[in-house]
Amino acid sequence: MAEYIAPIQRLIDEFRRIPGVGAKTAARYAFAVLNLSPDAAAGFADAIIGVKRDVHICPVCFGLSSKAESCEICSSPDRDASVICVVEDAKDIITMERIRGYKGVYHVLGGVLSPLDNVTPRDLKLAELDKRVREGSVREVIIATNPTPKGDTTAAYIVRMLEDSGVRLSRLAYGIPVGANIEYADDVTLSRAMEGRRFFENKSGI
Question: How far apart are CA 36 and CA 31, in angstroms?
Fold first, then answer.
C-alpha cells in the first residue's frame, strides 16, 4: 500500500522536483497546501502559472524581465550602459542591486565553464557578451563570477576573450569569502567587494 493517497503523492512528487527539496520537506509542503483554503490554493497555483507565463528573458542582458522587450534595468535612462557587470545567474542581479551605488547594467552568463560537466563556452552567453562589448560604447566590464574554481576559470576566459577589446576589465575584490556564492553575501561585504574590485592592467590572468 502506498504511503500517501494518490493526489497527495503526486503533489509531493512535484515538490521534489525543486532542487534541494527532499522527501520530508516535500511532504510538509504538500500538507501545507492541503490546509489552504480553496481561494488560497487557487492563488498559489495561479502564481506558479503566472511565473511561467509572465516572466521573460531580457534579449539584452539575459536577466529576468516582466516584459518581452528589454528589462527594466537595460531600458532605464538612469543606468550607465557603458559599465557591464557580468554575473553567473539571473538571481545574482537581485543580489547586486542591493548595492545602491551601482548604476551600471548586467550580463547574465547562464552558468560557469565546467569541462567535467560538459559546460563549454558555447553553452554560456559568452559570444553575446563579446558582441555586446565590441559593438557598444562599453568602457568597463566588471566580472562578478563567484570566487570558486569554476568562477575563476570563467573569469580568466572572459579576460582572454576581451583583452584586445580596449575596455577596462575588473573583478570583484575578495571581500566575498573564497568558495562562497554572491547570492549569500551581506550588503556590507558586497559593497566593499564592488568598491575594491581589481583591474586587469596586463590582462594576463585573474
Answer: 9
Tens of pLDDT, residue by residue, the chain (206 residues): 468 899 999 999 999 999 999 999 999 999 999 999 999 999 999 999 999 999 999 999 999 998 878 999 999 999 999 999 999 999 999 988 987 789 999 999 999 999 999 999 999 999 999 999 999 899 999 999 988 889 999 999 999 999 999 999 999 876 656 566 777 677 766 776 776 676 776 555 55
**Cα–Cα dist 130/116, whole Å:** 24
- Tell me how far apart the alpha carbons of residues 73 and 63 are, in angstroms, rounded to a whole number: 9
* Side-chain half-sphere exposure of 62, counting CA atoms within 13 A: 18
Best CATH choice for the domain 6-54 from the list 1.10.10.10, 1.10.3720.10, 1.10.8.420, 3.40.50.2000: 1.10.8.420
- Map residue 57 onto helix, strand or coil: strand
Query: 14-46 burial string, b = 16+ CB within 10 Å, else e?
Result: ebbeeeeeeeeebbebbeeeeeeeeeeeeeeee
Distance CA 157, CA 206 (A): 9
